[in-house]
Design goal:
With 129 residues, the chain is an alpha+beta fold. It has a domain at 42-129: His-Me finger endonuclease fold (3-Layer(aba) Sandwich), CATH 3.40.1800. It contains three helices and six strands; from the N terminus they run ββααββββα. It has helices at residues 26-33, 43-55, 108-122; strands spanning 5-7, 14-16, 69-71, 76-78, 84-88, 103-107. It has a two-stranded antiparallel sheet. A two-stranded antiparallel ribbon has the order 3-4. Strands 5-6 form a two-stranded antiparallel ribbon. A hairpin with a 6-residue loop joins strand 1 (5-7) and strand 2. The chain is extended and about 60 Å long.
Length: 129
């Protein structure tokens, strides 16, 4: 092998020394695979996110657990210390929108359960026989 080249330990391609293999460029691959994720930085989504948390007073839609608090210093709702997540009722990948009516605040546990149920509904059963 020529000097200045190496093998990618993940896909075994030859890559120039000092460069990462294209298979490891997760951000670019994820952007191509999941283009709707860019809308999470959209000002409309960020405004609607705050409206939804305010509408639910920082409590989970499903179990009522407090998962956000209002920071008087910034004048915004904060979910980080409590683990709250704003969920899309109809996911963006299935044609949902960032409208207030499509968003709900959920705790991590309830968000995971809702996503799991959605994935089960979306997957098709395997027929054997």
């Amino acid at each position: 092998m020529a000097k200045g080249k190496s093998f990618c330990p993940h896909c075994y391609r030859v890559v120039p020394a000092g460069q990462s293999c294209p298979c490891r460029n997760r951000d670019a691959l994820r952007k191509a695979r999941e283009p709707w994720r860019a809308s999470y930085r959209d000002p409309e989504y960020l405004r609607n996110r705050q409206k939804v948390i305010d509408r639910q007073l920082g409590r989970c839609k499903d179990c009522g657990t407090t998962c956000a608090h209002f920071d008087t210093g910034t004048g915004m709702w904060v979910t980080a210390p409590y683990g709250g997540e704003v969920d899309h009722e109809r996911p963006l990948c299935e044609g949902g929108t960032n409208d207030v009516s499509n968003l709900a605040l959920r705790c991590k546990r309830c968000h995971g359960l809702a996503d799991s149920a959605r994935r089960k509904r979306r997957s098709k059963p395997i027929r054997r026989g």
